[in-house]
Amino acid sequence: MKPVAPPSICLRGVHLLNIIRFASITFLILAAVAGIAQSMIKPPFHREWTYWAGPGLEVLSIRGETIFFKSYSTVGAVDIANGRTRWTRQLTGYVEGAAMNADHAFAIARNDNSSRLWKINLSDGSLSFFKTIATAGAEVAVSENRVLVLERGTLMCFDPTTGNDLWSTVLYKGDEERTVLTCLVADGEKAYVGIAEDAFYCLDSASGKVLWSEPGKYGM
């Protein structure tokens, strides 16, 4: 008698037996790759260097061989190869936020009743005053040709070279005595703003026009 092939199920013209075989081969390939990856990262690990940047450390960006960071009252740059300081700048007040374009970092430092926006050259850390922000709480985001500052519920736009005001859009008017939780992100020609207990907004970065908004209790 001729041997009988094992039964298989046809699923839209494809044999389930072939699918199982393909899945088994795929699993073996993935397992082999995972084994290689595990062998590359298994301990022991060796610490190359340690850098103390102070409390409130946040890495802003890693570009080439340089780590850019902000801490409680400092903005700085560290050599990634050896952990040595390239430059640091001490600002007056608490650094609430910082953002970078190709050549500069813009950092907001909060004082008791207002905030100052500083412009820092990324190559040597040279510092220059940029703007005074009326309130003590603000956020900053940067694109190549715009600096965006969110002050409570108002989004403002400045020229990064001259500091001139380009536009201002009021998104939310709340109680002046109440803390407003916000977030700001710039992405090319659009800016995104979240305001807690209000809405999430998308704006045209060139004009400040609201393109769309999504109401909600948690706009963030």
Report low-confidence residues grouped into runs of 5 or more: 1-33
Report strand order across the widest sheet: 3-4-5-6
Separation, N- and C-terminal Cα atoms: 72 Å
DSSP strand count: 18
Name its key features.
220 residues, mainly beta, four-stranded antiparallel β-sheet, disordered N terminus
Description:
- There is one protein chain.
- The chain has 220 residues and is mainly beta.
- Helix content is 12%, strand content 46%.
- The chain is built from 1 helix and 18 strands.
- The strands form 5 sheets. Strands 3-4-5-6 form a 4-stranded antiparallel β-sheet, with no helix packed on it.
- Strand 1 and strand 2 form a beta hairpin.
- It is globular.
- The N terminus is likely disordered.
Secondary-structure blueprint:
Blueprint: E1 10-11, E2 14-15, H1 16-41, E3 58-63, E4 66-70, E5 74-79, E6 85-90, E7 94-100, E8 104-110, E9 115-121, E10 127-133, E11 139-143, E12 146-151, E13 154-158, E14 165-170, E15 182-187, E16 190-195, E17 199-204, E18 210-215
Antiparallel strand pairs: 1-2, 3-4, 4-5, 5-6, 7-8, 8-9, 9-10, 11-12, 12-13, 13-14, 15-16, 16-17, 17-18
In short:
The protein is mostly beta strands. The chain has one helix at 16-41; strands spanning 10-11, 14-15, 58-63, 66-70, 74-79, 85-90, 94-100, 104-110, 115-121, 127-133, 139-143, 146-151, 154-158, 165-170, 182-187, 190-195, 199-204, 210-215.
